[in-house]
Structure formats: structure tokens, C-alpha cells
């Protein structure tokens, strides 16, 4: 664990960048520092690897004051990734990634072998190894930055706005990749961003800082969304807080109706069984949804209503299920299994009830944790 203990940083010109900040950063999880420009995020991150020294307070790594350790060995235990990757322009991609292993005295061959392995891990094609940074896209350069930070397998990764300079689509790809890598490697990651959506997507824990380097709230994302500590946090979280919060509620508790599912070639008896349902979900021979039909109307493939975007109860959230229902012309969402076969349907109203129940459970859990 990294313990930031009542740390204040006052720069020489008197600017208080961080004010009595205390945070316990858990191991093997992503902790995000988020807040408006100038609230001291970068200063906090840099105090962890001693690029900046606190004016007051201290930082403990696994119980020991980081000042007791030589700064070189401290920094080697902490990979560092910055915006625009900060690559060495005159070195190839492979040699950029191999930088720290080479500094540690690994042979060129071993360091390059490790670099090649890391290129694969961060989703970079091996054919890019001999290129120079300027020959890569911004997103690819950022991946090189992550690979370089991971090269010596440090337990801690410090990331300062690493994905801010790329477009939203590339950014989403990089975020997904980071979550995948984190699943495999389980690093202790401290991630700085000014983007609350990025914080909520990536963070196991999120620290919201306010101007003057003061902590506004430190909580898991679902708790931030359900119980913002004050008006500043609420405002910073922005609109759609309620809808976004649904991403944290799994869809597997929804009660699915199977009565309305009918195959395209259903006989009269089978159709009669579904006559009470407001709509029938027509499926193909494999059970995949084709579209909606009204009971009593003959089933014809080209007269079916679009079934909208289905959700998967085991993996998707109530947000996805609600989105499916909202987009569906019938107001019912379709649930499918991993193979895309329909397993049931659920109405907007039933989703609404599940949402209320989930809110109730979450409120009880937050209350119990206090
Ligand atoms: N070397 C320095 N000397 C004096 N003041 C500084 C120095 N570095 C940062 N500051 C000030 O400290 C405050 C916090 O800066 P910091 O870079 O930590 O904020 P930040 O939250 O990372 O901001 P941003 O999101 O804009 O990067 C700001 O007011 C900044 O101007």
C-alpha cells in the first residue's frame, strides 16, 4: 500500500499545490486522482516517485517512508507514463521499450526480447519494432509508453494523463487495453486524469481533488455516483449521474419472460400460448432474435419490428438493458446468451423495478460501510 500521510506541497513562490492530503492507495488496483486543472494531481503523483518533495507530511510504501530508500531504486520500482508518451525520438520502438532493462544491466538481446514480449502485451504489432516514434500514431506511441513503463516489471505504475492527447475512439481502446493488462498483471496503479468518465471507468478507487489540492472525496466509482460528498463533487460528476450509475448494477437479477419467444415457424397452438403477451419475439431456427410481432398477426419475416440491441444478463449492466428497452419499438428489451440466442424478454417497467431495488440495496450497503 502507498500511504499519503497529511502531505502538503508549497512551491517556492508560495503556491499551495497540495494541502494536507491523506490517501491510502490500495495494492494491485487502479486508484484515480481526478479534479479540475491545477488541483494538484500531477504534484501528488510526482511526490510518490520523489520528483517533487513534500513540504510537510510523508509518503509510506509498504509501511516504510519513501525517503529511506535511494531515489534510483524507488523510481525503478515505479513505472511512469506521461501524456504524449515522452518517447526518445532517436531510438527505435524496441529500444525505447528496452530502456529500463538496459539501465538495469540486462544484455541487449535479453532486453530486446523482453521489449518484443511487451509490444505484444500492449497490442502493438511486431512489425513496428524497428520504427521510430514519429512513424507511429498517437495511440500507438501511447502504447509504447505503457510498454516502456512495464519493461522492468515494477509493482507500481504512475500514469499522468496518459491518454489525454488522443481522440475519443483511440482513447477508449487504450482504456480497455489498460483494464485488460491490469487484469493480467495486477499492478498498483495511480492514474491522473481530469476526465471524470475516464476516472469512473478505470478506477477501483477514485480520489476527487478540488482546487488548492484538497481532497473532496475518496470512494469507489459506484459510491461517488450514488453518494457524492458535497455539491462540488456532484457538480464535477456532471449530468446523467443516475443513468451512469446503472453501469454498476448487473442485469442478471432481471426476471425474464420466456412466454413471448416464438420461432418463425411456430404452429397455431404455440402462437395461441403467447397470445396474452403484448408482443411476440420471433426467433430463427437457432433461437436468435429476428424481430417483434403483434399477437394475432401472421408471422412474416419482413413485417417484424426491429428488436433493438439485445443485452447479455450475465455480463451486461442494467444500463445496457435499459438502453435496449428504450431503443426497442416495443419498450421491451431482449436478453441473449453468449451465442446470441434469445433467452427472454423484459419490459421497461420491470427494468424500472429492478433499478429501484438495486438503488435500495446500494443505499443499504453505503450506510452499512459508514
Ligand atoms: N514548479 C512549480 N512552481 C510553482 N507552482 C507550481 C509548480 N508546479 C505546479 N505548480 C502549481 O501548483 C498547482 C497544482 O499544479 P499541478 O500541476 O499539480 O495540478 P494538476 O491538477 O495536475 O493540473 P493540470 O490538470 O492542469 O495538469 C497549480 O496552481 C500550479 O500552477
From TrEMBL:
Enzyme Commission number, as recorded: 7.6.2.9
ATP-binding found in the keyword field: yes
Span of domain ABC transporter: 2-236
Range of residues in the leader sequence: none
Keywords: ATP-binding, Nucleotide-binding, Transport
Official protein name in the record: ABC-type quaternary amine transporter
GO molecular function term, any single one: ATP binding
Isomerase among keywords: no
Cited Gene3D superfamilies: P-loop containing nucleotide triphosphate hydrolases
Family: Belongs to the ABC transporter superfamily.
Amino acid at each position: 500500500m502507498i500511504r499519503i500521510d497529511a502531505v502538503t506541497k508549497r512551491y517556492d513562490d508560495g503556491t499551495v499545490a497540495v494541502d494536507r492530503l491523506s490517501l491510502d492507495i490500495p495494492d494491485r488496483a487502479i486508484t484515480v486522482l481526478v479534479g479540475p486543472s491545477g488541483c494538484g494531481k500531477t504534484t501528488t503523483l510526482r511526490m510518490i516517485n520523489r520528483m517533487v518533495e513534500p513540504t510537510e507530511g510523508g509518503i509510506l510504501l509498504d509501511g516504510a517512508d519513501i525517503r529511506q530508500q535511494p531515489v534510483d531504486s524507488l523510481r525503478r520500482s515505479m513505472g511512469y507514463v506521461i501524456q504524449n508518451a515522452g518517447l526518445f525520438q532517436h531510438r527505435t520502438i524496441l529500444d525505447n521499450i528496452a530502456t529500463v532493462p538496459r539501465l538495469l544491466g540486462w544484455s541487449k538481446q535479453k532486453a530486446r526480447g523482453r521489449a518484443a514480449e511487451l509490444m505484444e502485451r500492449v497490442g502493438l504489432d511486431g512489425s513496428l519494432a524497428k520504427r521510430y516514434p514519429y512513424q507511429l500514431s498517437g495511440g500507438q506511441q501511447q502504447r509504447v509508453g505503457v510498454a516502456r513503463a512495464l519493461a522492468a516489471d515494477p509493482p507500481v505504475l504512475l500514469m499522468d494523463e496518459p491518454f489525454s492527447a488522443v481522440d475519443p475512439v483511440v482513447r477508449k481502446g487504450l482504456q480497455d487495453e489498460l483494464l485488460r493488462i491490469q487484469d493480467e498483471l495486477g499492478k498498483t496503479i495511480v492514474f491522473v486524469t481530469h476526465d471524470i468518465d475516464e476516472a469512473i471507468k478505470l478506477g477501483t478507487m477514485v480520489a476527487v481533488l478540488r482546487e488548492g489540492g484538497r481532497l473532496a472525496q475518496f470512494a469507489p466509482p459506484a459510491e461517488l455516483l450514488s453518494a457524492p460528498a458535497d455539491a462540488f463533487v456532484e457538480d464535477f460528476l456532471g449530468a446523467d449521474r443516475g443513468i451512469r450509475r446503472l453501469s454498476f448494477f448487473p442485469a442478471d437479477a432481471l426476471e425474464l419472460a420466456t412466454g413471448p419467444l416464438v420461432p418463425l415457424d411456430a404452429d397455431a397452438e404455440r402462437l395461441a400460448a403467447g397470445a396474452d403477451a403484448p408482443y411476440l419475439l420471433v426467433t430463427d431456427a437457432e433461437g436468435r432474435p429476428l424481430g417483434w410481432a403483434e399477437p394475432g398477426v401472421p408471422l412474416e419475416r419482413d413485417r417484424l419490428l426491429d428488436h433493438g440491441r439485445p443485452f447479455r444478463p450475465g455480463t451486461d449492466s442494467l444500463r445496457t438493458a435499459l438502453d435496449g428497452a428504450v431503443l426497442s419499438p416495443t419498450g421491451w428489451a431482449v436478453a441473449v446468451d453468449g451465442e446470441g440466442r434469445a433467452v427472454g424478454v423484459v419490459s421497461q417497467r420491470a427494468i424500472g423495478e429492478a433499478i429501484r431495488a438495486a438503488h435500495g440495496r446500494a443505499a443499504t450497503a453505503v450506510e452499512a460501510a459508514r
